[in-house]
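This part of the workshop introduces the protein records we will be handling. To make this concrete, we reproduce a full record directly below.
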Amino acid sequence: MDWIRTINNAIGYMEEHLTERITLEDIAGNVNLSVFHFHRAFSMFTEMSPTDYLRKRRLSQAGAELVNGDEKVIDIALKYGYETPESFTKAFTRYHGVSPIQAKKGSPIQFMSRYTVRIAIEGGQIMEYRIEKWEAMDLLVHEKSFHTETSETEIPKFWDEYYANEEYRKIPGYLGICSQQKTDGDEFNYGIGCKAADIEGVPEGFRIMHLPEYTWAVFKCVGPMPKAIQDMWERIYKEWLPVSDYELIPDIDIENYLPGDPSSRDYVSEICIPVRKSTSAV
């Protein structure tokens, strides 16, 4: 998949529909991605969520129209999807630092131009990874459903709960397993667990997850958690996938937390993503 083109196409679709009610499902469907993988990729490339991008661009355009035109505040509010002048004024003031009325009177406002995503060659840091063929296997997981928009804050809480409730006494939770549900919605399952072969039986609150036979790209992350693994995810999307001979299989990905002190600058963890040779590389 050409990720740069895909994200730019998504941005083009969003720009064409700034004054319409569109959902994440609409945008992701337009570029033939699941909501989960679209949200993740867009956030990696732009460093903001699709929802944030839409909100900021709409408020930016609304500000420009208030300053340069004669339309009433309520008309601009309705045009950009706000149901009341009060809700529009609150969002406008939070973004621009001035109210709509102040903007019409000449107070300076913020402007955010349309994004264009390009490949940037930076740094020269080496990415250490390996390509491996794994046989099918079973994992033992304690899992929960998450929404794409709130998962970054909710998943760390899930890990905290896992240890606070002493679930780790049932199984060693060294794997973080992200499994997109087979729906077109914005929910996905995230599990904490281990290989099923490590434990006898299935403890209460856990289930067996079957992992198909895949080829995997396994990336080495070095540094304290969670920054090291978050930084590597960003590099995978920004640096590796756009130029690699492999493309992502949108199914399950795994974070492998190896033994050691997660707060240490030398701590090693891994990101494992299922891949296949890209059609352009064949």
Notes: The chain has a mean pLDDT of 90. The first strand starts at residue 129 and ends at 134. The chain is about 35% helix and 25% strand. Residues 50-68 form the longest helix (19 residues).
